[in-house]
Amino acid sequence: MSLSSRPFNRTSLILLALLATLTACNKPTDATKNASTETKAAVSDKGVAYVTSQDAGVSVIDLATLKVIKNIDVKAAGPRGLGVTDDGTKLIVATRENGSISVIDTATGAVTQQIEVGKNPEFVRVKGNFAYISSEPSAKAGPPPKPGSAEAKEDDNEEKLPAKISVIDLAAGKKIREITGGPETEGIEFSKDGKNLVITNEADNTVTVHNIESGELVKTISTHEHGDRPRGIKASPDGKSYVATLEFSNKMMVLDSDFNFVRNVDTGETPYGVSYDATGKHIYVANNKSKTLEMFAADNFVKLKEVATANRCWHFSFTPDDKQILLACGKSDAVLVFDADTLMQVAHIEVKNLPWGIVTYPKSMGSLDNK
Q: Are 342 and 54 in contact (CB under 8 A)?
């Protein structure tokens, strides 16, 4: 007798219902397929880039296709600095308007926590289970005044409140202490031995070195005689030197491993983001007003190449394979992609709403991160 002609009892009906349920559960839904696709993109050989936009959230770029595949709502206004944990599971984003950071689950794009850090949070660096975030109580909106102008003199006469570097325990999900920097702290870097935090303070023209555990001030380097408005700061891969951009002087300052001044290097107009490549053989500088990206030899600081960029290109990152450079250009609503060796532009990715910072996972060298 066939199944269709066999009489059904209660047990048979229950068994058929269970079979139908199991079949439906095992069948991939559209949501499952989409989640699987996003997961593959996030862990692909090429990796992903995360880009903050000041008037929006975070764009996720698939580095295999160089296309935006996802947008993340950070649940706050004014995202700027960002960093990713070593395992890639968390993205930390500084949000200016609420004085906090958003902790984001990279698998889902959900904000799992917002932690208050202080007024005008800007830079983010992640090391191990800790995030370091600069906040600038003295900072004002808009571009800095021109040197020698009445606005600059007025600005110099105003009391400058020291910036704070908030130390966030990501495992505990809370701020555990603060390190006091100079007024309007900009770049944040770690010494190679992990003992010190090196920061640039644009308002008083200093680079300060702090013990990372105690916060104690170890050394202050005045930049004024060498140049004004220090912004980016980056350690060489071997830890034997540091370079800092001097925005108002169109120079890059070189320090040795003990933070002694070595020399200045001429750059394009208003240099900002700076980074060594992974080999330590080259240094790259993003210049704002001259709209250029420059490559220097790290051994003798000779400029090797230069390429035209776009409007307000501040921060950049290498791709995880070190073959390309991703440059966030805020007022051009774009991320420009360059070949790291030739500096030829290979792609233009539209990222709207004032792109500010950019990092990748797997982690890469760049103006905001290190491998």
A: no
CA-based nearest residue to 118, from 160, 167, 82, 159: 167
Measure Cα distances from 307 to 181, 231, 245, 310 in Å.
34, 21, 18, 10
In angstroms, how far is CA 235 from the centroid of its own chain? 16
Alpha helices, DSSP H only, in 97-192? 150-157
CA angle 83, 31, 60 (to 5 degrees): 25
Q: Write the single-letter amino acid at 245.
A: T
Task: Decide the pairing of beta strands 261-266 and 271-276.
Answer: unpaired
Nearest to 235 by CA among 371, 345, 80, 84: 371
User: Which is nearest to 226 in space by CA: 254, 199, 201?
Assistant: 254
Mean of the per-residue pLDDT values for the chain? 88
The percent of residues in the chain predicted with pLDDT above 70, rounded, is 82
Give tens-digit pLDDT for 153-163: 454 544 578 99
The owner of tokens 């992974």 is 278
Residue carrying structure tokens 């295999």: 64
CA–CA distance, 104 with 29 (Å, rounded to integer): 25
pLDDT at 15 over 90: no
Q: Which two tokens stand for residue 352?
A: 């709207």
Please give the CATH architecture assigned to the domain spanning 47-140+149-181: 7 Propeller (2.130)
pTM score, whole prediction: 0.85
- Residues with Cβ within 8 Å of 129's Cβ and at least 6 positions away in sequence, in order, are 85, 169, 170, 171
Q: How confident is the model over 18-49, as pLDDT tens digits?
A: 444 434 444 444 443 443 334 333 456 899 99
CA distance 122 to 330: 15
Dihedral sign (CA 58, 60, 63, 67): negative
Asked if residue 279 has pLDDT above 60, the reply is yes
Collapse the DSSP code of 365 into the 3-class scheme (helix H, G, I; strand E, B; otherwise coil) and give the result: coil
Mean pLDDT value of segment 345-358: 98
Name the residue among 191, 286, 281 with its Cα closest to residue 239. Answer: 191
